[in-house]
Specification:
Number of helices: 13
CATH topology: TIM Barrel
Strand order of the largest sheet: 2-3-4-5-8-9-10-12
Largest sheet: 8 strands, parallel, barrel
Shape: globular
Structural class: alpha/beta
Number of domains: 1
C-alpha cells in the first residue's frame, strides 16, 4: 500500500506544471492602479522599489521586471508623474540582491544598440547571470514625443524592422570579437566590446501585434501576453504557442501578465476593486488613450493598445481582465489559465507590492499545486 501511495504521489508530481513567477515592479507612483484611491505606499521611489524587490526575493519569486517610463499622466492622481529610469534601477537592484533575476526595459528606437550592449555587459558584472532585458518599440506617441524621443518616419512594421537589426547588432557585440555591420539603420566598423557577458541575457518582448509577435519569436526567449480568464485573451495565448512551434521556436516561453485584486473573501476583493473604481482617474485614462490615438499607425498596434486607444472599459481603475477574488478562489483560476493557455510563467501586478505580494504568495500561489500548477515560492 505504501509503495502504491508513493507511486501515485510521484505520478501527480510528474503531472504538475512548474512555472516561473515574476513581479512587474512599481517604478512609477500608483503602480498600475489608475485611481486617487490607490495605495499611497506605491510612491515610485527607489526605497519602495528596493523593499518590494527584496521582499519578492525572500518569498522565492524568480524575477522582477521594471517598465520604461518616460511620461506621467494628466489627472488628479498624477499617475506616474514620479518614476525611475529602468536600467539604472536594474543596476542598483542587482547590487542589493543575491538570487533573484532583474529585467530592465529599453525602447530600441531610443538607444543605439552598442550603448545597450555595453550597459548589459556591465550589469552582468554586477549580477552575473541574473540580468535580463525587456525590449519595446513604443506605441504611445505622447509617452515619447514630449521629451523628443519619438522616432518619426517609421510605420509600425518598420519599427520592428529596426528592432530586428538592433538586436542582431547587440547579439553580435556580445558574442563576436570584431563586428562590422552596415544595415538600413545602423553601421559599425570593426567594433570591439569586452568583456563579454558571463551568460547571454534572456530577452523578452510583449509585442502582441502580428509583426510584434514575429519579432518576439525570432529574437527573444520570452513573450509576454495579457493573462486573464476572459475568453478574449485565450486566442492570443494559444496562437503564440502555435506560432512559436511553427517557426521552430518550441522553447519560447510565454508568460501571462496577471493583475490581481485579492482579499480574504470574494466580497473583500470586490470591495477593494470598487474602492479603486470609486476614485478612478478618468482624465488619466483619457490621456493614456490619447497617447495611442496620436500614433500615426494606431491601426497596426496590438489589440490591447487598440482597446486603450478606444477608451473601452475605461471606467475601471484596474486593467481589463483583472482577477478579482479571494486568495483561495484565485489559486484555481490562475492555475486554470496557466494550463488552458499553455503559459510557462506569470508576472504579477498587485495594488500593494509588499502586503499583497506576501499574502498572494503564501495564500494563493502555493495552493495552485492543488490544481496541477506549481512554482518555486516557499519551496512549493
Amino acid at each position: 500500500m505504501r509503495a502504491l501511495l508513493i507511486i501515485q504521489l510521484q505520478s501527480f508530481k510528474d503531472m504538475t506544471k512548474v512555472i516561473d513567477t515574476g513581479v512587474f515592479i512599481p517604478v512609477g507612483n500608483h503602480g498600475w492602479i489608475h485611481s486617487i484611491n490607490s495605495p499611497a505606499v506605491e510612491d515610485g521611489s527607489f526605497q519602495r522599489v528596493l523593499e518590494v524587490t527584496k521582499g519578492a526575493e525572500g518569498l522565492g519569486f524568480d524575477f522582477v521586471l521594471s517598465p520604461s517610463i518616460w511620461r506621467g499622466r494628466k489627472g488628479p492622481s498624477e499617475h506616474w508623474m514620479r518614476s525611475l529610469e529602468s536600467l539604472t534601477t536594474t543596476a542598483a537592484l542587482l547590487q542589493a540582491t543575491d538570487r533573484i533575476s532583474v529585467f530592465g526595459t529599453v525602447h530600441m528606437t531610443i538607444y543605439p544598440p552598442a550603448v545597450v550592449a555595453k550597459i548589459m555587459t556591465t550589469l552582468d558584472q554586477i549580477g552575473p547571470g541574473r540580468v535580463g532585458l525587456n525590449l519595446v518599440t513604443g506605441s504611445s506617441y505622447l509617452d515619447l514625443s514630449h521629451v523628443g524621443l519619438w522616432r518619426d518616419g517609421l510605420d509600425h512594421n518598420e519599427r520592428y524592422d529596426l528592432a530586428d537589426e538592433w538586436i542582431q547588432v547587440v547579439k553580435r557585440l556580445w558574442t563576436e570579437d570584431i563586428v562590422s555591420h552596415k544595415g538600413r539603420f545602423y553601421e559599425l566598423t570593426e567594433a570591439t566590446m569586452g568583456p563579454k557577458p558571463s551568460h547571454l541575457p534572456p530577452l523578452a518582448n510583449a509585442g502582441a501585434s502580428e509583426r510584434g509577435f514575429k519579432f518576439a519569436v525570432q529574437n527573444c526567449d520570452i513573450a509576454f501576453l495579457s493573462g486573464s480568464d476572459d475568453p478574449k485573451y485565450k486566442a492570443d495565448a494559444i496562437r503564440a504557442k502555435q506560432t512559436a512551434r511553427s517557426m521552430g521556436k518550441a522553447d519560447l516561453k510565454v508568460y501571462g501578465l496577471v493583475t490581481l485584486i485579492a482579499g480574504e473573501t470574494d466580497k473583500d476583493a470586490k470591495d477593494r476593486k470598487d474602492h479603486f473604481d470609486e476614485g478612478v482617474d478618468i482624465e488619466c485614462l483619457d490621456d493614456i488613450a490619447l497617447g495611442y490615438n496620436l500614433n500615426p499607425n494606431i491601426k497596426d498596434v496590438s489589440p490591447t493598445s487598440l482597446r486603450l486607444a478606444a477608451g473601452r472599459e475605461k471606467r475601471s481603475a484596474v486593467a481589463p481582465g483583472a482577477f478579482v477574488g479571494s486568495y483561495a478562489s484565485l489559486a484555481k483560476r490562475i492555475a486554470q489559465v496557466v494550463i488552458d493557455y499553455e503559459l510557462d510563467g506569470i508576472i504579477l501586478i498587485v495594488p500593494d507590492y509588499v502586503n499583497d505580494l506576501e499574502a498572494v504568495a503564501k495564500k494563493t500561489l502555493v495552493r495552485m499545486s492543488e490544481y496541477g500548477v506549481s512554482c518555486r515560492l516557499g519551496g512549493a
